[in-house]
Design goal:
The chain is α/β, with parallel strands linked by helices and 384 residues long. Helix content is 40%, strand content 19%. Helix 3 packs parallel to helix 5 and helix 7 crosses helix 9. The protein starts with a strand and ends in a 5-residue tail after the last strand.
């Protein structure tokens, strides 16, 4: 095992080519561009042996991925923000076709106004497409999750695409040391894909043609069952990774100092990493605070959320906004708790438009809750 010091995007590119995809189809967009540049460089040097397809748009990129995956081969891509929105139609197509495409989405603000910094509205807007969604908080977690994603997506009882989300510039362009296993170890962990169905000229089939209502509802129900199955399988794969490589980022949720907590912070992505420091500092001041960083937003970890609610009240920090309702994670948490728990949920919106959210900001948010100054939804600004 060796150490590679590089940005989140180049780490994602390294993980992708070590998974040995047969096809990568992609279109550049800031701040994702260096990810596909990295894969292009690996293609140029011969380290990446698969096909690299340069297309004219993100819609075309996902269309090419769908066509390639439908032939039974392993496929990877990447995008961000407006590129992800341009893919929206084809995201539904990929999931309904049960194609295990793996994609990195670098979370970036949706305009206008024009903004290239981080928030999660781009991927939150795709939560109902049927894709499994991960939110990661370090470059090491990017690498490990990309590899694990192929194993999860390609399981015969899941066979759904996976989106790995990480924050623009906070991770995509920040260099960190990452442990890289040997290629032989990766090959053992994710063997060659065995498709549940494929397009084959020697064994022709029709797929995605006209479907009547009675059959369509079965298709949707099967997708739901696959997401439900994925909850436990994601945990199983995380444990296999820990046994093989000694690293563990949590499974559906990364828990930190939750056992005796009176309040538990729930958040996603890079804010989760900052929250660890805030938890430690608040603990030194005698406040019993814990952290539950939600790694997997779809399938939503509702059983885990209910279990944690027996210990403490929740403080949810969202780097997104479902306009007209509030933070998406907060709404999902409240839905999971409805009828199952009387736990109080305090909600914050923070970091939209790429505003930095430091551990000091998180400490201020928590102290306001503890002091009884937060009743419902709060918008946190750095001036507070």
């Amino acid at each position: 095992m060796k150490v590679m010091i590089d940005t989140g995007n180049y780490i994602a590119a390294k993980a992708a080519i070590m998974a040995k995809p047969n096809v990568v189809a992609a279109y550049p967009i800031t701040p994702q561009t260096t990810l596909v540049e990295g894969i292009a460089k690996y293609k140029e040097t011969g380290e990446f042996k698969g096909e690299y397809i340069c297309v004219e748009s993100e819609h075309s990129a996902m269309s090419a991925c769908i066509g390639a995956s439908a032939t039974g081969v392993r496929v990877f891509t990447g995008t961000s923000s407006h590129g992800l929105l341009l893919m929206h139609e084809m995201l539904h197509w990929a999931a309904l076709s049960r194609l295990p495409i793996v994609m990195c989405n670098i979370n970036r603000v949706v305009g206008p106004g024009w903004n290239i910094w981080a928030d999660e509205n781009d991927s939150i807007a795709q939560r109902d497409t049927g894709w499994i969604q991960f939110y990661v908080s370090s470059n090491q977690e990017i690498f490990d999750t990309v590899i694990q994603a192929f194993k999860i997506a390609e399981h015969e009882k899941i066979s759904l695409p996976i989106m790995i989300n990480y924050n623009a510039f906070i991770l995509s362009h920040t260099s960190m040391p990452v442990y890289i296993p040997e290629q032989e170890e990766i090959d053992e962990f994710i063997p060659k894909r065995k498709p549940t169905w494929k397009l084959d000229v020697d064994n022709p089939i029709t797929f995605g043609n006209i479907i009547l209502p009675d059959a369509y509802i079965e298709v949707r129900r099967d997708m739901q069952r696959a997401q439900d199955y994925a909850r436990n399988y994601i945990k199983k794969v995380a444990e296999e990774w820990r046994e093989k490589f000694g690293r563990y980022h949590g499974d559906l949720i990364d828990r930190y100092r939750c056992d005796d907590a009176e309040y538990i912070i729930l958040t996603m992505g890079a804010i989760g990493a900052e929250s660890r420091i805030a938890v430690d500092n608040l603990r030194e001041d005698g406040l019993k605070i814990g952290l539950a960083r939600v790694r997997v937003f779809r399938p939503f970890p509702k059983e885990d959320i209910v279990e944690l609610s027996k210990k403490a009240d929740f403080i949810v920090i969202d780097r997104n906004i479902s306009v007209g309702m509030g933070g998406a994670l907060s709404a999902e948490v409240k839905s999971a708790l409805y009828g199952n728990s009387d736990t109080k949920v305090y909600s914050y919106i923070a970091g939209l438009g790429g505003k930095d959210v430091t551990f000091k900001d998180i400490e201020k948010m928590i102290r306001k809750v503890v002091d009884g100054k937060v009743k419902t939804l709060e918008w946190y600004s750095l001036e507070e």
